[in-house]
Every structure is written in structure tokens, then in C-alpha cells.
Amino acid sequence: MAEAVSPTAASLTVVTAGAEETREFGRRCGRLLSTPLVIFLLGELGSGKTMFVQGLAHGLGVPPEYYVTSPSYTLINEYPARRTLVHIDLYRLNAGLDPEDLGLNELLHGDGVAAVEWAERLPSEAVADRMEIRFEIGEGDRRTLQLLAYGQAATSLLKALDRSTGR
């Protein structure tokens, strides 16, 4: 696992009713992001991780001619935006991989936004400051997204999301 929930992590739960709502939530996150951030996307196949990244890309300003897909076979897709979006998919790799061996350290600690699917395959110490989003499949098309913020950038995003939902 990426890391157990710590009592110092701020959290927010969001429930979406389908793929478009999951994309829209990603769009909102992208619009609100103003600093570099690593987002760990955790959840089983078909839980909405790629849908979220498609919305995130739109919110960050990735041009519409770029079709955002999961980089399952290429490992990394990079998209131009006001903050470069790096979409990483570790599904095909073994747990406990060394990010340095794959050349991921620069991407995980760069000036853009890194969205990492199957991030539980990284060692827990790979990225201390991050947003974790745990996707759970509910009844029908419902998805529950549990957001956990570790560090200042993630906590700021979580607070902005919380304010934008009127909580």
C-alpha cells in the first residue's frame, strides 16, 4: 500500500454518480491547482481513475486535441498545459519498484502535476507530499472518492475543493 491513513492527513469524501461526474470533479481539481502536485490514484480496475485524469487534464488546460488515455503500455503520457500533466500508470509493474530505476524521480518532484495510477506499487517514502485519491466502486455507476492530503500543496487543494462544494 502507498501509506496507511495518518491522523495528520486532511481528508474529504466525494461521491459521483457516473463517469461524467468523475470527470467533472477532476476538472474542478485541475482548475483549482496552482502549484506542483503528485496525485496517487488508488482503486481497482474500472473504478474511475482514468476518468478523473481526463477531467484533471481539461481543468489544467490540456488542449482538446490531446486524447487522454491510460498509459498502461507506455507507462507515461505527458500533456502540455499551464502546469504540465504527467500521467503515469504502474499497473504492469511489480510492487516495491524503485522510482529512480524508472527515471520517475524527476517527474514526481518536478514543476508539473503527476497523476499516478496504481501508486500502491511505489514505496511509501517515494513522495511524502501528495494527494491520495482512493476510488471505490459503488452501486451502479456511483463512485466514492476518498481524498487524503499529505503536505501543503495537497492540503491547499483539499481546502479549495471543500470551499467550492459549500461545506
Kindly state the number of beta strands.
Answer: 7
Task: Supply Rg.
Answer: 14 Å
Compute the separation of the termini in Å: 30 Å
CATH class: Alpha Beta
Largest β sheet strand count, sense and barrel closure: 7 strands, mixed
The total number of structural domains is: 1
Mean pLDDT: 85
Q: Give the helix tally.
A: 4
Low-confidence runs: 1-7
Name the CATH architecture. 3-Layer(aba) Sandwich
Task: Describe, in plain words, how this protein is organized in 3D.
The chain has 167 residues and is of the alpha/beta class. It contains 4 helices and 7 strands; from the N terminus they run βαβαββαβββα. Strands 1-7-6-2-5-4-3 form a 7-stranded mixed beta sheet. Strand 6 (130-137) and strand 7 (143-150) form a beta hairpin. The model is unreliable at 1-7 (pLDDT under 50).
